[in-house]
Amino acid sequence: MKTALFSLTLAGTLLGTLACGHKEARPEAKVLPKLAVTLVAQGAPDGGAWVAATLQSTRTAMIGTRMAAQVRRVLVQEGQRVAAGTLLLALGDEDLQGQLKAAETGLATIQAHHRRIQALQAQKASTLAELEQVTAQVAQAQAGVDALKANIGYTQLRAPFSGVVQSRKVNEGDFVGPGMPLLELIGDGEQELVATVSDQEAKGLKTGAKVKFESEGVQGEAQITGLAPGGDPYSHKGTLRAKVLKPKGLRQGSFARILVSGVAVEGLSVPRSALVQRGELTGVFIAKDGRAELRWLSLGEGAGSYLPVRSGLKAGESIIDQPGALQDGQPIELTGGVNHGK
User: Fold this and answer.
1) pTM of whole model > 0.90?
2) Is 244 contained in some domain?
3) Distance CA 32, CA 322 (A)
4) Which end of the chain is more exposed for a tag (fewer CB within 10 A), N or C?
5) 54 and 199 in one domain?
6) SS3 state at 270
7) Measuring CA to CA, which residue among 48, 45, 55 is closest to residue 259?
8) pLDDT tens digits, residue range 208-231?
9) How many domains does the chain have?
10) For residue 276, what are the contacts with CB-CB under 8 A and spacing of at least 6?
11) CA–CA separation, 51 vs 299, rounded Å?
12) Which of 295, 336, 314 is nearest to 39 (CA)?
């Protein structure tokens, strides 16, 4: 019994000691010091806004045919560079060739009859009405031959200008009909930027004005050649076209951004000086109830000191400028007024 009692006492003592030791090892909560901060006003981008655009050639053609026929040969591949007049694709023309031979035979027959009538007319052995009738028949037969030759020409599809085959939509043996797109050709030479702009973004822009752009890390300059804001009945946006002045030879179909200078972006925006970066996330600190609250944002693109806010911020919220090492939940003390930026 004494041995058992001693064991229980010793175990209790050890547990108490461990419990006390664990309690003493518990770290104290870190008290964040109060930090003096200044606020910054929500504003609008002062350096303009970036508008998404696509880089393309000023000359593009979707090659098709007006004939219903079978594809006999495809002589080009995607990405191939071709000169103007190069044969791109040949359609079957057996039926048309047969019709042409018959029409040419008919034309030769009526021409021979026309010559006989002319000879008789010279001898006063035929009437003028007979000559006029056969002359009209010759013209009709000739028109039929010319039409068939033109249709046969539509089975030989050639490049209308020099360029690159962007896409091939048919293979040998396919049956195609009138209006079907067969090949897409992108022309060499001048390039243009095509963008969709709102009425707000189009303010201050005009045909002939020069704009800056970026594409694949390359900066350039373009001149506006067409501007039709508000043309779409659903989005109420229009089309902006700008001819690339420099540099030349950029890749067709590349994504680009056009700088629309001096245009305020609709909605909320925040200054770059208030932004904090945590890995792939970007946010700002909001002054709320005497503490700093970290707020993650979804931002748009801007060219000035302010960036447009897509989501994460409400109008009128107090944004802390130049947060530095400020932490979420840290007590703050507001100093001075509101910095309205540059």
Assistant:
1) no
2) yes
3) 18
4) N
5) yes
6) strand
7) 48
8) 988 889 888 788 999 999 888 766
9) 4
10) 282, 283, 284, 285, 294, 323, 326
11) 14
12) 336
